[in-house]
Amino acid sequence: MYLGLDLGTSGVKALLIDGDQQPVASGHGPLDVSRPHPGWSEQDPAHWLAACEHAIGELKASHPNELAAVRGIGLSGQMHGATLLDRDDKVLRPCILWNDTRSHAEAAMLDAAPRFRELTGNIVFPGFTAPKLVWVKANEPEIFARVAKVLLPKDYLRLWLSGEHISEMSDSAGTSWLDVGKRRWSGELLAVTGLDESHMPTLVEGTQPAGALRAELASKWGMQAGIPIAGGAGDNAASACGMGTVGEGHAFVSLGTSGVLFASNAAYLPNPASAVHTFCHALPQTWHQMGVILSATDSLNWLAGIAGREAGDLTAELGDDLRAPSGVTFLPYLSGERTPYNDAAIRGAFAGLAHESGRAALTQAVLEGVAFAFRDSLEALASAGTRLERVTAIGGGSRSLYWLKAIATALGIPVDVPADGDFGAAFGAARLGLIAATGADPFSVCTPPATSRTIEPDAGLTQAYEEARRRYRALYPAIKGVSA
Question: How far apart are CA 46 and CA 3, in angstroms?
């Protein structure tokens, strides 16, 4: 057996797979996000450990023999979070998360220094780790002075599991401290933020062993001590491993809390001006590009909260047959936006509301707004040298057939739906655990799932969608500067 642990924003998932990569059982531990001020987003790392304990506890209760048979562990996690530790590995403050925008001024300052884009291949976004440390240095100097190690969320789990300070390339590429082309920390960039390599974890590839399970935890869970823990991956790269999106030109669209259009690359192809992320992949000598929108299913969940309904109930009201846009337009910028604008201050908006604009019209506009945001990412990827012919859909939002039809029509390319199964980040992490434990060839392990159906763009609505997208694109410059 092999265990994948995925530390997401809303919970920790533990997934067991067997030697044939068939999912056997899963457990889940819930998490909440603290928002003490507008634009802030934090979590207490102690809650991550409790959620992980809960998830593995469920596996122990339901599948103790399978848990005892685990021979490799893989880790995945939400990216960019700043987990600050002192010399005794004590957490100094709540972790500042990926969707926290407080450090927008610090990010702009770092981004203005040409070496950041030159070495990282990316804009310095407010959600990245480096500007958060600059913010802490300016606003919480007594905490900054005590920082001995900066860990990403999943790597704090690794520290608890193994006692080791280790990270890997895909997650570390989102810090603004990694030389992404050379796959190593940049002492030059660290120095700009008042840090050096001693503050960073050791780096490995995601497929390599990176620590071993401590005897104390192994005894508690009925597992073997010393089980190898793979380097793992950031959540999107882990999902790519789960989806088999590891070869040149392979791509997926992820409808999760955030939205991601992910393309695998066999070479390092940076183009930061497009606001596309260019990161290391979890497999050696591979990279990937991503267009990222900050509020995908988050936008639908927000509307569901306002409407007092479940998100699935709102999409069910629309049925499965795609409708022409109603004239109501939604910008999904509830917590700012990355691709293509890199704008932490922009906020969401409805436009074109009328007396007849009921709940279904608002739901339809939200789904279309997210679809158009993915179209923005598609065009940004094209400007960075990556042209996609089709994508595979993953994430909770992909359960909505209507939403998938809207995305296919907005993108103008087919959307493949995988056969039933769990191919997300926890599965990818488990695959990486298998590779690290057995030395198997990564490309033979990380294969794509079978496709259950393909959703083609609705040719009859292409023109209507293009007109709606023109309205969508005109809104951002119209509200910029007045929506914050």
Answer: 21
Choice among 6, 111, 235, 416 that is catalytic: 235
Residues with Cβ within 8 Å of residue 448, at least 6 apart in sequence: 243, 244, 245, 250, 392, 418
* Structure tokens that stand for 24 in this block: 């056997």
Angle of CA points 163, 166, 167, to nearest 5°: 140
Cα-trace Rg, the chain: 21
Q: Is 235 among the catalytic positions?
A: yes
DSSP string, 344-389: SS---EEES--TT--HHHHHHHHHHHHHHHHHHHHHHHHHTT---S
* CB-based contacts of 180, cutoff 8 Å, min separation 6: 119, 120, 121, 122, 173, 268, 270, 278, 279, 280, 287
Helix (H) or strand (E) holding 428: helix 425-438
How far, in Å, CA of 180 to CA of 285, rounded?
Answer: 11
Rounded to 5 degrees, what are φ and ψ at 23?
A: -60, 135
> Rounded distance, CA 255 to CA 239, Å?
12
Tokens of 421: 């199964």
| Percent of the chain's residues with pLDDT above 90 | 90
Interaxial angle between packed helices 359-383 and 311-318, expressed in degrees from 0 to 180 and rounded to the nearest 10: 90
Q: How many CB atoms lie within 10 A of CB 116?
A: 26
Confidence band (pLDDT; 50, 70, 90) for 484? low
Taking phi over 0 as left and psi of -120 to 50 as alpha, with beta for the rest, 89 belongs to left
Whether pLDDT at 20 is above 70: yes
Return the structure tokens found at 39: 């634009």
Q: Report which secondary-structure segment, H or E, holds 189.
A: helix 187-192
Q: For helices 153-162 and 45-62, what crossing angle results, to 10°?
A: 60
Copy the structure tokens of residue 190. Answer: 């660290």
Cis bond leading into 457, ω under 30°?
A: no
Residues shown for the chain:
484
Strand 251-255 to 391-394 pairing: parallel
Residue 276 has which token pair? Answer: 């596309």
283-303 tens-digit pLDDT: 999 999 999 999 999 999 999
Predicted model pTM:
0.87
pLDDT digits (tens, 9 = 90+) for 119-140: 999 999 989 999 999 999 999 9
Closest CA to 312 of 322, 303, 325, 321: 303
Q: How far apart are CA 127 and CA 373, in angstroms?
A: 18
